[in-house]
Amino acid sequence: MPRVFLTGLAPNLLALELVNKTVKVSITWREWFLGFLPMGGLLFILVPYLVYKIYPPEVKSSESVHVWARDELSKMGKITRNELIMASLAIIALVLWIFGGKWVDATTVALMVLSLMILTGIISWNDLLNHKQAWNVLVWLSTWLLFLFMPPNT
Description:
- The protein is about 70% helix and about 0% strand.
- The chain has about 150 residues and is an all-alpha fold.
- The chain has 2 domains: about 1-75, no CATH class; about 80-154, no CATH class.
- The longest helix is centred in the first third of the chain and has 26 residues, at about 30-55.
């Protein structure tokens, strides 16, 4: 059974849900990861090396990089409150997505973290509304799923 479903691409999560609804096979994040690990681990190691060999970089060293990096970091300043909250929320979401599947749905986690980001001021409501493509995908996929899984009238 193919197990490379749970990537960040929305149709993959849709495919996972379709498999779950049609053949009653539930694939957890852990099962997906363990199924992907042998080939994924090998690719994780080999792809950067192969890219380096096939398309070697033109500049392989620079003495001024550390000076440039230090200057850029000083321009950025210290880590802000919003950055710390955002990092914490990302870690919470990741932990709940991986280990919390028995207690809370992944969609609930995403909406919870998104709500907390709005409530804490990390993003504004207008920031959220400005992502028209994401809202478009959400509406089309949710409508399609509604009609796909709606029980027939009796």
